Amino acid sequence: MAELVAVIASTHHPFYHRASTATGEDRPGFADEWVRKVEAFRETLTRARPDVLVMVGSDHFHQLWLDNMPQFLIGKAPFYDANWYNEEREFGLPRMVMKGQEDLSAYLLREGIDAGFDLAFSNELRIDHSITCPIITLRPQNDLPIVPVYTNIFAPPLPRPKRFVQLGETIRELVESWPGNQRVAIVGTGHLSLELGGPRQFGPHGPDPEFDAKAVEWISTGDIEGCLSEVTLDSLHAPGNATHGFMDFMLMMGVAGEGRKADYVDTYDLFHTMEAYFTWYPTGAGK
Amino acid sequence: MSKYLLNKFLFTVDRDPALVERYRDEPEATVAWWEEGQANRILNCHGAESSTWLRFADAERAALAAHDYPKLFELGAHPFLTLTLFIAMFERDYDEPLGFQLEYARKLSHMTLPYPDIAT
């Protein structure tokens, strides 16, 4: 069976690429420390020596649109082109191409449907910064095949938080039962408190530092029960109007497991939103 | 009222560089052109299979034609779509980093929770 060698949950800040590559007067003051933190985080994935990456993220109205909106979708293709014109325009993100691990995609789809998730699929998926940001931060050489998993945190009606946790639990079970001997890492990205297109956007910190502190505590201690007791689709409006992206962190808590403390935790308080980085080693592989 | 159609306008303009410039320069004419010939197109289908029933409410058409993003927020347009497109059009007019984004927040500062429903 495949081995789950690392579980990683991260924010996906689209400005990292531009900040980390800027020089001279264009380089923001927070860039050097950000790069240091990201490189330390990257080492937690490198140490696990993965062969394959399952990448959990969310399309930001790029390929998935309101005339045909899936709740959970898995890409099944030999390649994935990535990043879109409006991400190049706004964030300076580069065009990328990733290889796909198509047999694992097929396995997750078949077994996932049988496990009770009516998963949508795509055989030609252009992926966006929710998945390319963690490639840029965690695996910039972009040398590993991926399985993209998209969730709807964007276009209501959304699945409820518990469903995200359950999908995470199921993805873990399926990866661990995948025939073969590959070393798999599951990497998912979301947000802490975040406001986009509203009055609280682009402040000196995330819109709700108190929520962020709680969220980091839930994630780092694996407190799924506590998190689910406080987080609902309604409650997530309060910390910021884009905070439903936190449900992808909850999915990753489901992957890591109830009560599983993260082996690596780091945060970085930036303008606009707090960065947060977590790594678990389910088998102790990277410790 | 059609939040869906508002979003469809923002979505289809935002992904087309020429349309972004056209909407910046001639908002009223672009909105009229789009409603006349594009609003009913089903994406990925040819023109003969267009829908027959989509049109803006007057307040929606007026908000788009006036680049009135606070009004679009009040009408329940998806905030991510509005923000992304308006950054593309107007960030260039501000000297300070995030100058437009902070102005945008200020212009929405009268909005309090719960925000307008964005469900379509």
Q: Quick gist of this model?
A:
The complex is a heterodimer of chains A (287) and B (120). Chain A is an alpha/beta fold and 287 residues long.
Explain the overall architecture.
The complex is a heterodimer of chains A (287) and B (120). Chain A has helices at residues 16-21, 31-46, 85-91, 102-114, 129-138, 161-176, 209-221, 224-230, 246-256, and strands spanning 3-11, 52-57, 72-75, 79-82, 96-99, 120-122, 146-151, 183-190, 264-269, 274-280. Chain A is α/β, with parallel strands linked by helices. Chain A has one domain: LigB-like (Protocatechuate 4,5-dioxygenase, Chain B, 3-Layer(aba) Sandwich). Chain A is globular and about 50 Å long. With 120 residues, chain B is an all-alpha fold. Chain B has one domain. Helix content of chain B is 56%, strand content 0%. Chain B has helices at 3-14, 17-25, 27-37, 58-65, 69-74, 79-90, 99-107. Chain B starts with a helix and ends in a 13-residue tail after the last helix. The A-B interface holds A 60-62, 65-67, 84-86, 89-90, 154-157, 196-203, 237-238, 241-242, 271 and B 4, 7-8, 11, 14-15, 17, 42-43, 73, 78-84, 87-88, 98, 101-102, 104-106, 108-111, 113-115, 118-120.
